[in-house]
Structure formats: C-alpha cells, structure tokens
Design a protein that fits this description.
Number of helices: 4
Number of domains: 1
Largest sheet: 8 strands, antiparallel
Shape: globular
Length: about 230
C-alpha cells in the first residue's frame, strides 16, 4: 500500500488542529524516515538494531492501566565507533536521543530530542587533547520538513499556529492533534503519538559519558532510562 504523500499529511494535520470535526490524520503520516507509528518491535529493530536501553512502565488512563515499553536509541548510530576514533570535548557532546514507545507490541509514540541529561563522572585533565568535531546532521530525518534545529517560526508556517503551550514558550502543542514541539527559538525536540494516553514524553533519559582520564574527552557512553 502506497504511503500517504507528505503534502497530504501536512494538510490533514493543519485541518485536524483547526477543527475537532476534521478527519483523523492517517496513521502512516506519523513517520520519521523509515520508522512510523503502528510498526512492531521486530520491524523497528530491523531498521535500527538493538536499542541502547529499554524500560517498562504503566500509564493510568480512564481508570485503567496501560503497559508501555520504551526503547532508547542514540544518534548518530555510529557514535560509539566515532568516539573511539575521534574523542569529543564534553561541551561538544550533545547526542540526539530517539524514544520509541510500544504498547501491546505496537509503536504508539515517537519522540526525538537533544536534551538528554548528560552526567559525566568527575575528571581533572592532566594533559591537553586534540578535539574533533563531526560534520553533518546527527539525525537526518524530519516530520514532513520539520527537523531538529529548524526555527520555531518554520513549524507554524508549515503546520499552522500552535493551539497551546507553556508560559516559558519552549513547549508547544497542536491539541487535539497528538503532536508536540520543544524549543523557544529553534526546534530542540518533538513527539508524535497515536493518541491518548501516549502524548506525554515523560522524563528525559540519562547519558553517562566514558572519559579519557588524561584529557577528560568523551570516548564512549552509556544511556539509561530516566
């Protein structure tokens, strides 16, 4: 079956954000590259490989409990190999994290952001090091043109005005559309879901860097659930 064209998806998201009477957004419109809502764990693992961390939790929704399994991935996918060859300064280490939430074995939410908590161990350098900065995008895919780092103004130009948000204006929603966007001036993250109760992204994952004790550069990492 052919994928819903991106132009059609954008129009459907705009219409659904303006009126509750609009038709629902097709499920296959909620996609990031080759990953889309409705996939199974086996399908996502075929594309992404094994997750860096997995956790299980329960959501309370309308007097019932909903079991969720969250899988965490770090991008770029070859980051571990890259750090072994070219260690990074701690101030340059801001990996992208992808959250995949599954319920009853089906992908029900996709979250992407650059705001994982990085908690390095104590380190005092004893020698200078040579820093390497990677080129290219850490995560090359977007949601119908919305990508990490894009101006927030470009999001409203594409999908229409936000329907809500917080007081600090760094979190925006498109209720009743299950789409939220993080960032004040630029997009630092976004999340899409199949519907309630999966819109909320929960806590941020924790990334613990492995450091070279000589210069305190990052040579690896471990990711943990929040």
């Amino acid at each position: 079956m052919a994928e819903t064209p991106s132009k059609t998806c954008v129009a459907n998201i705009q219409a659904a954000a303006k009126s509750k009477r609009a038709p629902p957004v097709p499920l296959d419109c909620w996609r990031l590259g080759y990953i889309k809502l409705g996939m199974t764990m086996v399908q996502t693992r075929t594309y992404l490989g094994a997750p860096g961390a997995t956790s299980a939790f329960t959501l309370n929704y309308r007097r019932r409990k909903v079991a969720v399994t969250r899988q965490l991935y770090v991008f770029p996918r070859n980051l571990r190999n890259w750090l072994k060859l070219a260690p990074s300064r701690q101030q340059d280490f801001h990996p992208v994290t992808l959250k995949l939430d599954f319920s009853k074995g089906v992908l029900v939410a996709i979250g992407l952001d650059t705001e994982a908590r990085v908690t390095p161990p104590p380190c005092k350098p004893s020698a200078a090091g040579r820093a390497f900065v990677r080129a290219g995008a850490d995560f090359p895919y977007g949601l119908h043109g919305m990508t990490l780092g894009a101006p927030i103004s470009s999001v409203t130009e594409r999908f229409g005005k936000f329907t809500g948000g917080n007081r600090t204006q760094d979190f925006h929603i498109y209720t009743p559309v299950p789409l939220s966007v993080d960032g004040k001036d630029k997009v630092t993250g976004f999340r899409m879901a199949s519907g309630p109760p999966f819109e909320s992204g929960g806590g941020e994952p924790v990334i613990v860097p492995t450091l070279d004790r000589r210069n305190c550069f990052v040579t690896g990492y471990v990711i943990k659930p929040s």
